[in-house]
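Subject: for your reference before the review

Hello V.,

The reviewers asked for a structural picture of the protein, and I figured it would be easier to keep everything in one thread rather than splitting it across files. Below is the amino acid sequence we used in the manuscript, unchanged from the supplementary table.
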Amino acid sequence: MKMFSRMIVAGCLLCAAPLVQACDVKNGECGGESFEALDKNADGAISQKEFEAFHGALFRKMDKSGDGKLTRQELDGVHEKMADKCDVSFDKRFDEVDIDNDGGLSKDEAEIGMPYLFKRFDKIDANKDGKFSKEEVTGYMKKMHEKRGEPMMMREQ
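And here is what came back from the structure prediction:
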């Protein structure tokens, strides 16, 4: 059960990665927690006990039914709440990272501004032109959701 809980938390963190990139979470904005908030004893490090306490509390907060399980609806609710708190659209973030304003992100731009997407650069760059467009990112995300059998929910801009 402990391993399953850790996998759920890891999955939640992975799903939140794009939102984290778009938000200033280091200051606790957009629902994020600062390092200091997790470091309860202020020793400059987060111990395993502090980490597990934080994530245990997070799990309990996400588990709206209190049954010790997270359903897809509960996770979707968390994602929607995070998205509502963070008013930075993908389009706006993409445009900010597109330093040369050519409508695509080069490897350098993606590495600095969107590391989550940079890690998948070669898969996203569908036409292999050395950069990816918003449409290529959307296409990649749609494929990933279809592969998992999930609907792709897009926020209105």
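For the response letter, the relevant points are probably these. The longest strand covers residues 105-106. The radius of gyration is 17 Å.

Happy to draft the paragraph if you're swamped.

O.
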